[in-house]
User: What shape does this take?
Amino acid sequence: MHEWSICETLVRSIDAELAARGVSPGRLRKARVVIGGLRQIVPAHLVSAYEALTKNTPTEGSAIETNVRPVRTRCESCGREGDLPSAGGFSCAACGSERASLLGGTELYLESLEIEEAEGECAAAPR
Amino acid sequence: MRRRAAMTSIKVYRDLMGENDAWARRTRELLAERNVRLFNLIGSPGSGKTAVLERMAERRPGRCRFAVLEGDVETTRDAERMAARDIPVSQLLTGGACHLEAKLVHAALREMPLDGIRIVFVENVGNLVCPAEFDIGETAKIAVLSVTEGEDKPAKYPLLFREARAVLLTKTDLLPHLSFDADECERFVQSVHPGMPVWRISARDGSGFDEWERWLQI
Assistant: This one.
């Protein structure tokens, strides 16, 4: 449900980043979004919201690609780092302690934009 | 043969919570200037958030030093309950949004008379999922869970229970009529957030409010 609100911010952010770089919105093919593992964001909902929000706009037809990152943890007893399991609480694989610090997990950012090169441009200069 | 269009990847790294978090920072600045703390009450619809605030006001008639920002999708009914007990209150209506965001909360706080107020409670929209995603500039999120819900809610809603700094386990007066195991619930809380305090309270009979208010330093 809150994916819609987040997607509105995403669309505004994409438009702003394209404008800041003088890139025509029609050249956008893909936007990559990183989602921390603790976020309760359903990628499929974000994709649906993006399609709805970009309909009849210059970025219609572009796609978003989501990358959900596992949450890294550091055991407060022995310092071992690992990934937080998706279900259940933390339990250190090395010492069994149940106390951990979370290293990130709530990040949510627009990582990159994939742009189609304009007519006449070359990806690399010829030798 | 047609050449496929070449692609360029542009690195952006733009925080999608950036705008929200900027408003949350402004709220923290405003609260620091006025020496006011803000607690964000998050719980299911019917978990007893409004009743907790009513009982707190009843315990200090005429000397209520807290104000309330009510967040609801529709109606001003909760704000009316606060006003009936002389609790300074503002109502935020989201008209459909399932959570409050920092910009809306900041705007409402700017309009609130805060003289003599030590704490503002935000009663967030009834929902265990979405409100936990948004920093509204609070001093702490408080998870509100009632004994008529499942003991395993903390495991089912880990983001809220990890973000919160305390849990209010409400409606404890109903325990004799339920098979709810409060100790088991606390174990679920501790497995997700070791060391988090759980205050067992009843707005109906007032039990547990001394300890809860001592922690709150109200």
About this structure: Chain B has eight helices and eight strands.
